[in-house]
Amino acid sequence: MNNDLFKNAIALTGGISTGKSTVCSLFKLHGFLTIDADKIAHKLLDKNSHKIEKMFGAQYVENGKVLRKELGKIIFSNEDNKLKLEALLHPLIKEEIIKESKVFEEANKPYFIDIPLFFEKMHYPIPKSLVIYTPKDIQVQRLMKRDNISKEEAKLKISNQMDIEKKKELADLIIDNSKDLKHLQKEVEKIIREII
């Protein structure tokens, strides 16, 4: 793989509902470019909806769009389904991320690639990582509120990912999102001073 490919890239990651998208928005406000792996995945899901239909059944697709919530139910609870979906999507996501970052590299300044499963399995040779950190109990509460689900469901979703404490240990940079937005903005500004 081309070494210059992700030279200026910083992988932005964290756990489910630790505040990645909020942090991404804040970086954008400061003029940073970001690539969002989830958005790319959603686009690719719809683009490949016929394949999803073949793999999992017609009930997961409507008018050429994948019903992500419905599909999520059989993905989160079944390892085989999860692996099947990943085998289809991950290479396509990677291709798209590489395409976008080639464009961003030309500017020769730091940019962020939001990859939720960066440490788990995405295998990107990105030299630097930034973890958006929230202690697990806050993570559970935010997820319950966000998805309107029970504590058990929230814990199950979170357990699908590597423990946030472990991610924190692996990170080059950390943003603490355990307090309010004002505190988060300060954390973001601190990181910007470190990377420019």
TrEMBL record:
PROSITE patterns: DPCK. It is found in: Cytoplasm. ATP binds at residues 17-22. It catalyses: 3'-dephospho-CoA + ATP = ADP + CoA + H(+). The keyword Nucleotide-binding applies. Its main location: cytoplasm. Its EC number is 2.7.1.24. The keyword Kinase applies. It is an enzyme of class 2 (transferase). Signal peptide: none annotated. It holds the Pfam family CoaE. Pathway: Cofactor biosynthesis; coenzyme A biosynthesis; CoA from (R)-pantothenate: step 5/5. Belongs to the CoaE family. Coiled coil: none annotated. This is Dephospho-CoA kinase. The gene is coaE. Keywords: ATP-binding, Coenzyme A biosynthesis, Cytoplasm, Kinase, Nucleotide-binding, Transferase. Catalyzes the phosphorylation of the 3'-hydroxyl group of dephosphocoenzyme A to form coenzyme A. It comes from Malaciobacter canalis. GO terms for molecular function: kinase activity.
